[in-house]
Structure formats: structure tokens, C-alpha cells
């Protein structure tokens, strides 16, 4: 039964869905330009959420038309957009895969649907994960984009337990865009841009705070170089054993 509190919470949720893009455009961009004028000299250099890819591999189960139809309906409910069926580019006899065989689903979200899905991740989906302690910064790739995997679809609020025939996960790739000069276009700068953006958007990076004690970018670079050296040393020791 709905109460006054539940209606207020619902109204607040819809307000969040509407305001997250406005918060970025009107507040976050201005704060970054004022606080870091040497790094972000113009609005085009400020990191932004460009698009979100949502993918699911179905494997040979995609050959079952009923299963594929059910997965497409589920993906449409979760993302708000009908997915594209991904197909194999070549045949692999060892995995019983033929050319142009249906193997998975993918969706690319932009604009309002992208922000709605991102807000749902922040305020609904992560809260449903048991013993959730945040996400690691190590999931950034060399281009500065962030990829995470979810083990089941039940953590999305639109999915009802009674309608689930099989537990399936999905992967989410958050593509971050920024027009950076060549002097600030290396891997570390791209990752730091993503960390700055996620910190303002309240994205739950659990080890992002480790770098707050460093006052300059050079100190962070020294830390990363030290970690790389230790990894190489450990690998060389393992090879000699």
C-alpha cells in the first residue's frame, strides 16, 4: 500500500532523473573551470559522459528463439531501448559457432536515456547488490573508459522475480569523452579525468580516496611508476622460480 512517504520518495526519484544532466551542465562544469583553470582551460576539455554500452553474451542459447525473445524484452525493460543482436563474424568449429550466428545483445545509450540509466545505476541498482563496497578504479581502460560487470538482472527495479527463467549478467561500458591537448592525452590523464567526473557524479569508486592525500599530479605519477616497478620485479621473481 502506498503512503505519503512513498509518494514523496517517488517524486524525489523522478526529480533526480530530471536533474542529473542539469547538475552537470550548470554546476559541475563551472566548478571544474574555476578550481582547475590550468587543466580545464575551456568547456570542451571537461570530461563528460559520452555514451553507455550495455552488452550481454548469450552463447549458443541464443539459437532458442523463445529464449532470445525473452532476453530482448528484458534488455528493453532494463535500458529503455531495444537492443541489437550481435552476430559472429567467422566460424569457430571448436565452439560450434557458425558465421553470422546470433550470440548476444548490445545497446548504446545516449542523451536522456543515457542519463536515466546512469542515475538508475547510482540510486537503485548498486543499492540492491549484497555487501556492496564500491567499485575499483582498476576497471578504467587505457582510453579512460570504465567497464563493470553485473552478475544478475534482478538488481534492476523493473525486473520481477516471477518473470525470470534464468539468472543472467551483463556488462556496462561507460565511455568518457574530453578534448584534451597532446600534452595531457596519456593514459594516466584520461583515467584521472574519469575519476574527477565520477567523483562529482557520486559514482561509488571505493579506492578513489587513496589519491586525495597527493597535492600534485607528479606525486600520483611517482606512485604509479613505483607500483609498475614492483609489479615488474614480482613478475621477474616468479619467472626465475
> Helix-strand pattern, N to C?
HEHEEHEEHH
In the predicted model, the low-confidence regions spanning at least 5 consecutive residues are 1-11, 231-241
CATH class of the largest domain: Alpha Beta
Mean pLDDT over all positions: 76
GO molecular function: rRNA binding; structural constituent of ribosome
Keywords: Chloroplast, Plastid, Ribonucleoprotein, Ribosomal protein, RNA-binding, rRNA-binding
Domain Large ribosomal subunit protein uL5 C-terminal: 103-188
InterPro entries: Ribosomal_uL5, Ribosomal_uL5_bac-type, Ribosomal_uL5_C, Ribosomal_uL5_dom_sf, Ribosomal_uL5_N
Question: What do these coordinates show?
Answer:
- The chain has 241 residues and is an alpha+beta fold.
- It folds into two domains: 160 residues, 50s Ribosomal Protein L5, Chain: A (2-Layer Sandwich), CATH 3.30.1440; 29 residues.
- It contains five helices and five strands.
- A five-stranded antiparallel β-sheet has the order 2-3-1-5-4.
- It is globular and about 55 Å long.
- It starts with a helix and ends with a helix.
- The N terminus and C terminus are likely disordered.
What characteristics describe this protein?
single chain; 241 residues; alpha+beta; 50s Ribosomal Protein L5, Chain: A; 2 domains; five-stranded antiparallel sheet; 5 helices; 5 strands; globular; disordered N terminus; disordered C terminus
Short description:
This protein is an alpha+beta fold and 241 residues long. It has helices at 4-35, 65-79, 111-125, 187-200, 217-240, and strands at 48-57, 84-87, 102-109, 146-150, 170-177. The protein has 2 domains: 47-206, 2-Layer Sandwich (50s Ribosomal Protein L5, Chain: A); 213-241.
Amino acid at each position: 500500500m502506498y503512503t505519503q512517504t512513498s509518494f514523496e520518495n517517488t517524486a524525489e526519484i523522478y526529480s533526480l532523473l530530471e536533474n542529473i544532466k542539469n547538475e552537470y551542465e550548470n554546476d559541475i562544469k563551472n566548478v571544474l573551470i574555476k578550481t582547475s583553470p590550468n587543466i580545464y582551460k575551456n568547456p570542451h576539455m571537461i570530461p563528460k559522459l559520452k555514451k553507455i554500452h550495455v552488452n550481454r553474451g548469450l552463447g549458443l542459447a541464443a539459437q532458442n528463439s523463445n529464449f532470445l525473445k525473452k532476453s530482448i524484452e528484458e534488455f528493453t525493460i532494463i535500458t529503455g531501448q531495444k537492443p541489437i543482436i550481435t552476430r559472429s563474424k567467422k566460424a569457430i568449429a571448436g565452439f560450434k559457432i557458425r558465421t553470422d550466428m546470433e550470440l548476444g545483445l548490445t545497446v548504446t545509450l545516449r542523451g536522456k536515456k543515457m542519463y536515466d540509466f546512469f542515475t538508475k545505476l547510482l540510486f537503485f541498482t548498486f543499492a540492491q547488490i549484497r555487501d556492496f563496497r564500491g567499485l575499483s578504479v582498476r576497471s578504467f581502460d587505457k582510453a579512460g573508459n570504465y567497464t563493470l560487470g553485473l552478475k544478475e538482472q534482478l538488481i534492476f527495479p523493473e525486473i520481477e522475480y516471477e518473470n525470470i527463467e534464468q539468472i543472467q549478467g551483463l556488462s556496462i561500458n561507460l565511455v568518457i569523452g574530453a578534448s584534451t591537448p597532446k600534452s595531457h592525452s596519456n593514459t594516466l590523464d584520461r583515467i584521472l579525468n574519469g575519476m574527477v567526473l565520477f567523483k562529482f557524479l557520486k559514482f561509488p569508486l571505493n579506492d578513489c580516496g587513496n589519491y586525495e592525500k597527493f597535492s600534485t599530479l607528479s606525486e600520483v605519477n611517482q606512485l604509479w611508476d613505483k607500483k609498475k616497478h614492483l609489479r615488474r620485479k614480482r613478475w621477474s621473481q616468479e619467472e626465475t622460480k
